[in-house]
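Issue 218. Parser rejects a valid record. Input:
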Amino acid sequence: MTHLDAIVVGGGIGGLHAALTLAKAGHAPLLLESRGTCGGLVFGAPIGGVWVDLGAESFAKRSVATAELCREVGLDVVDPSGQSWLWSHRSGGFATRIPHGVLGIPTDLDDPIVVDLLSSEGLARARDDLTMGPETGADAPDLASLVVARLGEEVLTRLVDPIAGGVHSAHPSELSVDVVSPGLRAALVREGSLVRAAAALRAAAPPGAVVSSASGGLFTLPRAMVERIGGLGGTVATRRVVTSVERDGDTWRVTHHEAGRAPNPADPPVPVGEPQVDTTGRLVVALDGRAALDLLRPLSDLAIGDWELPRGADLAQVCIVLDAPELDAGPRGSGLLVTPDSEGAERRVGCKAITHYSIKWPGVVAGTGKHVLRVSYGRAGVPTPEPTLAGALADARVLLGIDLAEEQVVGHGVIHFPNSLPPQTPAHRVRVDELTTHLANTPGLAITGAWFAGTGLAAVVAHASRVAGELAAP
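Output the parser choked on:
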């Protein structure tokens, strides 16, 4: 048994940043990660000879913390190239640029794109927002209720659902307003209109695109963080499964094993071999929410009980690398989001989005002469069919308007994300607040990660920095 300065359980970006924060404060943390690499949903791999992001590829600029983290570990920060588009199934299917806004909430109802996307009745209903005063919808806990109360059902269906739902992989009725768009409700009260509130948030945000990435691909971030943690005296141990944490006064006992392969390759690694026990006065649990709750449930002080997370969506992606010079012009910019509701129209594509990765992040593939398309499938509450290369190419042909042939494909991969990104529902946030209160009376323990901090790197990095900083203090 070894007593350590600090232990971090989980090597996603939240766990890595917690370990980095502890290391910078002079501690020597041990980070335990069950898989062979760190980064969680930030990861990449070579497809057709080109290293590309296969998980998260960008972070929101509303917080400067993630950009500062990239620069701290030696990575340049870049904005995406090319505009984003929206595909609607109405009128036989058409593409239009995504209007300026916040999660699909427009900042200008006279924007020609908004006018084209809405019917005359829908646009008239949306204009009510400008004159109804700030009270209506101000107490709406979820994004859908807020949008419908202020702007009407059509704005929700044709703008907010495909954009916010595409970003968070959940229907807006399951998204807490205060988590997915911090400050929006306060701006509504201040501005007296949801449209003007969205405009105020965009005006206050950093100029340019709403997202950024690391110049060589976001998958380079966890690698650089691991190296930095080691340089500061910390240790990152992969293929270690933590099976229990126990409290003994102000000390935490952490039991971990070597990680073995589960019978189902899609399942998490399983413990094998003899256990190792380490103790610490500073413990950070930065696991996936389901694993975190299972690990912490035996600690009666936290009153976790039978808490189960909301079900996430079963997502999948087909990443395709092509020799296709006809894609050089980027016919749909950085890609398209697809409206989920066809409103009675025939659906011509089965995917929910396509990212023209080589147009969006040209620096990642510079010099290869290749194009990369990421075709995404899966929505919350709807069964996800097994995606195929043929189906993804068919969807790409319709969305991009280019006749791509299978002979042009130099490599592809199908990636699954089962039960991914549990929605940040208002009820879930209440439970998080309750657990946060219990943690205040539990010395030496912190919890972080997307399920606890909120979806997206902007939320996770800021939260991990704060809770680990509090734990690092004398």
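Fixed in the parser; the record now loads. The mean pLDDT is 92.
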